[in-house]
Design a protein that fits this description.
With 182 residues, chain A is mostly beta strands. Chain A is 13% helix and 43% strand.
Chain lengths: 182, 182
């Protein structure tokens, strides 16, 4: 075992992590997309998510203005768009055209048509976490592509190649094979 | 797109998610292991993690008593142990013998010898999130197996087959191939 010298690098040890697109809308109605790998379900009952996003990002401004967001699940087919959404800043560029969108079920923020699932959320609270705000959201609706998930809501990896982020420009896919403990 | 009927199932849409072992120690000094898939880095500077754990679990009692934990990264070689740690309750069973441990660098909780990385944390705060507590921890030390990570701290997937949890008894591994946006 080697000691990690620079503790700020600890998160590399936890990567790869799943990639999501956080869709938001600012007070003037402009849609924004941001790539996030630091997002998890926070609770099933009631349904809640948590996502750590940089304090510097445009998304935070939009969330403060309108209080709603969508967590969408992209696949490798959208990798170029995922990269754009994750590297361009909404303060400098209008990112609203990156993905194709459609009306959501319950929130005013749109969902991403090309994504295999869209989870619609309302901001419950934001927690100051150093360089990020940890956004906690109530899940108020969700929809999914029934070709990408089986009847038990397990993603079908040979059909939907979901992305994880390793580091920098490097992304990973899962093997389409499951393992069981014995 | 199909509407998700039972919103409490939304987290299936976000899985698979990476698997970590949360190591804790209760006030009487007994070590406990718990499998968590709902964990992320929360900040790099200062280094912080966030993990959502059930309010029913023994780990929460231990965290309240001693305020320290380790997030360890297992591989498929420990899948049987990962399953045990995730399905047995510390209230009913002494799980302290599941993994081989050794002394940590900075916390009193031990690290897992068989894991490729161990991130040592002190509880900063806990946030009530429905059925879970979202535990936010300050990372105060970390160590890793230099054979499992390259010089840029990228996990070497052909050497270290890290686990993700799909659903129930089903786990997944990554392809040992990286993808880049074009």
């Amino acid at each position: 075992m080697r000691v990690l010298e620079d503790l700020e690098d600890f998160y590399y040890l936890m990567h790869p992590l799943r990639v999501f697109i956080l869709v938001s809308k600012d007070g003037r109605g402009r849609v924004n997309f941001m790539t996030v790998a630091w997002a998890i379900p926070a609770s099933s009952d009631p349904p809640m998510v948590a996502a750590a996003i940089s304090k510097e990002c445009y998304t935070l401004k939009a969330l403060r203005e309108t209080g709603e967001f969508v967590l969408a699940i992209p696949t490798v087919e959208q990798l170029g768009k995922v990269w754009k959404a994750g590297t361009l800043s909404g303060f400098k560029v209008d990112k609203s055209g990156i993905f194709k969108t459609r009306k959501a079920l319950k929130v005013k923020v749109p969902i991403i048509e090309e994504c295999i699932a869209n989870i619609e959320c309302k901001v419950r609270r934001m927690i100051d976490c150093g360089e990020t705000m940890l956004v906690i959201g109530d899940v108020i609706a969700a929809s999914y592509d029934e070709k990408a998930y089986d009847e038990k809501l397990r993603v079908q990896l040979y059909k939907a190649k979901i992305l994880s982020h390793l580091q920098g420009k490097l992304f990973l896919l899962y093997e389409a094979k499951t393992y069981k403990p014995t």
